[in-house]
Amino acid sequence: MDVIGLLPQLHLLRFAVGQAYLWRDGEDDLTLIDAGPVGSGGAIAEGIASLGLSAHAVRRIVLTHFHEDHAGGAGEWEGVPVLVHRADAPYVRQERPGPPPVLEDWERPLHARVTQGLPPLSAAAVPAAVTEVRDGEVLPFGGGARVVHVPGHTEGSIALHLPAHGVLFTGDTVAASPVDGAVMPGVFHQDRPRALASLRRLGELETEVACFGHGDAVTAGAGAVLRAVAGRAG
What share of the chain is helix, strand, coil (3-state, %, to 5)? Predict the structure, then answer.
């Protein structure tokens, strides 16, 4: 796993498939945004230690959606509350299987290649404590992190907006190309038109730094970038 500094308070944690983010409000108040695939807990703890911090300081995990490359590792953090939108909460609890994406033809080989390397979910991956969040709710980190419901990738997908810092975590509603870093709409959606509408909503926010579920973050002028991507997507 790679640990990449974006801001003094913000680090990207990159796995072989997928990524998560660590937000720091002092040494004793850490927040994970997403938790990586099953088996990522140890690597994340080592990454936190490499920053001179303790994994015991992780106070909450906020999941942008239920997919296994984002939520699979959430159950490995004993005693840490896991926050997720109510529409995705049953899948994180593994009360029933999550609905698959509706793939376009060009997405099928890419989806098969990406998911092939993901370890399967198991009972051990179920978090002990799942808290449901709602659109507009403000969470106690980053000077007030506002939950933005962005359905489309999944029904319960959320973004997190930190107005005090100009930071936005988009989940998989938006992505950056691994080839050239170009920002684009995400892929593998349940409902692509709704995902594009959610992208347009994100473009309306005042954002300097945008952190995506896949690909490099935009660290300056992100709001304008998101509006341009939304405009091209129609």
Answer: 25, 25, 45
> Of the given ranges (31-35, 178-182, 192-196), which has the lowest mean pLDDT?
178-182
User: What contacts 37, CB < 8 A, 6 or more positions away?
Assistant: 15, 17, 18, 68, 69, 72, 73, 118, 119
- β-strand partners of 209: 167
For residues 221, 167, 133 and 118, what is the CA-based torsion angle, rounded to 10 degrees? 90
The one-letter amino acid code at 82 reads: V
pLDDT > 80? residue 220: yes
Q: State both tokens at 188.
A: 């593998």
**pLDDT above 80 (res 64):** yes
Task: Tell me the C-alpha distance between 143 and 37, whole Å.
Answer: 28
Among residues 126, 131, 72, the alpha carbon closest in space to that of 94 is found at 126
Nearest to 68 by CA among 84, 44, 92: 92
Q: How far is C-alpha 163 from the geometric centre of its chain's CA atoms?
A: 17
Where do runs of H (alpha helix) occur along the chain? 41-50, 68-71, 89-92, 107-116, 192-203, 222-233
114 pLDDT band, cuts 50/70/90, is: confident
Structure tokens at 218: 């935009």
- Identify residue 170 by its one-letter amino acid code: T
| pLDDT reading at 122 higher than 80 | no
Find, among 195, 185, 113, the residue nearest to 154 by Cα: 195
Instruction: Taking residues 75-98, report their average pLDDT.
Output: 96
Longest dimension (CA), the chain: 47
